[in-house]
Amino acid sequence: MSYLDQITSPTLLIDEKITRTNIKRMADKAAAQGKKLVPHWKTAQSNQIGNWAKDYGIREVTASSIKLAEYLCGQGWDTIHIAFPFNIREIKKLDTLAVNQSLSVQIVSPVTAQKLADQLTQPVGFFIEIDAGYGRTGVHVSDFGTIEEILRIAKSTDKLKFRGFYLHPGHTYYTPDKKKIYQQSIDALIMLKTKYSSEFPDLVTRLGDTPGCAVMEEFGDVDELGPGNFVFFDLMQAELGSCSKEDIAVCLAVPVVDINRERGEILVHGGGVHLAKDVLLDSSGNKNFGEVVSLLEKGWSLLPERSYLKSISQEHGIVKASSTLLNQVQIGDLIGILPIHSCMTADCMGGYLSLDGKWIDHAEGCQ
């Protein structure tokens, strides 16, 4: 039976071949420069896809929350890092998980460091998150007072082990000059490693975001790379130049429920609860919530003429359709939508259907 025959409602499809190619390409890039690839699993959130990653030598992974870390525990990862400023209300949960799984957390405040030092009964590693220009979170790269206070607190206990410095230059998503941002980030990490390596000779530096890791060819003396979205990519990454549309590994299959040929529009069952509401603007200022592709027995293919999701509500999506697409589809057919933001789409859908008709797990609950 074709995988298409299983679909009655919006369903997130995954192409294993493309996914594996994306993982291997990034793993090869890291290995060629002697870097360790520690992917951020906030995109895939899947144990099965994690097993694919292990086929390419990936042994450590990053989670976006303690909930995701708990889901990934017991799957053979050497260490799971929680790359979010640690929430001290979750210390008890962290302590419980650390009994059987090597874990590390992200610290940006001496208050958090002290609470961990006071309450942990199990050893946990930590990175100090550094802000070198993004401005979202982290200790400013020049704030040595805060860095050293966190390190002083960690030294007071055998339950906190300093692993190094973590930097996420997320402003590569908004600035054309990604190389400049990356060089600034690399320079910041090198400076910190030079300053503290005599006291902490085993410390490592980790840098990661998909736009930068995808386009950069040199990463200097940074030890580890931690991108996430590269596993699937999406239209946002294609817009940023991180990938081509052919590299996008997930696609939302949606049923056609009505066709308005006068307006050149197709109504689909697929909206914000399936795709989230990330949007791109085209050169004419039109909103684009996803691009239409043809669904085939072995996957999907780009259309010769662009058709796109022009608007979405909770369950509805309206496709601005080319004349060719209008002439091809009928009510009840399935069409595919390449997502603007694959991380959010996967989180919304909570599971994947492979092209061989098998369901693949997701932390939010496989169908």
From TrEMBL:
Keywords (A to Z) from UniProt: Lyase
A Pfam family the protein falls into: D-ser_dehydrat
Origin: domain of life: Bacteria
Domain D-serine dehydratase-like residue range list: 249-353
Family listed: Belongs to the DSD1 family.
Protein name: DSD1 family PLP-dependent enzyme
Residue ranges constituting the Alanine racemase N-terminal domain according to the UniProt record: 15-232
Gene3D superfamilies in alphabetical order: Alanine racemase (3.20.20.10), D-serine dehydratase-like domain (2.40.37.20)
Xref: SUPFAM superfamilies: PLP-binding barrel
